[in-house]
Amino acid sequence: MLLQLTGVNKRFGAVVAADDVTMHVEKGEALGIIGANGAGKSSLFNLCTGVLKADSGEIKFHGHDVTRASVRERCREGMGRSFQIPKPFESLTVFENLLTAAEFGCKDDRRSIGETARILEITGLADKANTEAGKLTLLNRKRLELARALATTPDLLLLDEIAGGLTEGECHELVELIKDLNAQGVTIVWIEHIVHALLSVVSRLIVLERGKIIAQGEPKAVMNDPEVKRSYLGIDDDMDEEVA
Ligand SMILES: Nc1ncnc2c1ncn2[C@@H]1O[C@H](COP(=O)(O)OP(=O)(O)OP(=O)(O)O)[C@@H](O)[C@H]1O
């Protein structure tokens, strides 16, 4: 087991962002997470990566308790993530952004110019290596967000709504890239509102509502769960519509 959360809770005043969350991520799998706006998806990533500290509960990564570990410690253990809103260093070039990410999160023996060049290649950014991040198109900013996460050499890659705002063709390109990464052994957890893209990659799905896991399992079965249809899709069970 790569990641294990047990009874994790997080509140912001009256708002419950994580409600007794118990879940795991198997090594090598591709897991999807969906839920309405404000359901607690990004908070879950923030709890996993250490941006937020849990009020209670336990988080284990690679079998070690990381509940109180810093963002950097978790990153160096192999937890990489992309942010919903890309936040590169705007005045640094793409290449410099990757070196900075590698410096932050990479285990020493895997940090190299060669590895950075490989990541530029696979993310389709090779010809943008010397372009300032602030001058990139949205698709290339998304690619850079993914490339920065990869530069930390993650075993576990947490992707937060990486397909949002892209055209159908751009989204397809990104999906193929994520599939390739998963096939190369990178474990993926992907939060995404573009459900058809998500379902073409993941083999398991978790649904959150007000910080609580309300369904999980095989994606098609989960999407047809009456509770999920009601909560996420706004479909009444009487309508009897099959989804996905
Ligand atoms: N730092 C914070 N301070 C106060 N409230 C917060 C904070 N972060 C998140 N919240 C609240 O916690 C709840 C869950 O937010 P979160 O961003 O995790 O949801 P989400 O499922 O990722 O939503 P979206 O799909 O809109 O990105 C929301 O009500 C949000 O307003």
TrEMBL record:
Keyword set, alphabetical order: ATP-binding, Nucleotide-binding, Transport
Protein name (Swiss-Prot/TrEMBL): ABC transporter ATP-binding protein
Gene Ontology CC terms: plasma membrane
SUPFAM superfamilies, A to Z: P-loop containing nucleoside triphosphate hydrolases (SSF52540)
InterPro entries per UniProt: AAA+_ATPase, ABC_AA/LPS_Transport, ABC_transporter-like_ATP-bd, BCA_ABC_TP_C, P-loop_NTPase
Organism encoding this protein: Pseudoroseicyclus tamaricis
Record bears the keyword Nucleotide-binding: yes
A biological-process GO annotation: L-isoleucine import across plasma membrane
Keyword Nucleotide-binding recorded: yes
Alphabetical list of PANTHER family matching this protein: AMINO ACID ABC TRANSPORTER ATP-BINDING PROTEIN, CONSERVED COMPONENT OF ABC TRANSPORTER FOR NATURAL AMINO ACIDS-RELATED
Domain ABC transporter stretches: 3-235
Gene3D superfamilies assigned to the protein according to its UniProt record, in alphabetical order: P-loop containing nucleotide triphosphate hydrolases
Example GO molecular function: ATP binding
Superkingdom per UniProt: Bacteria
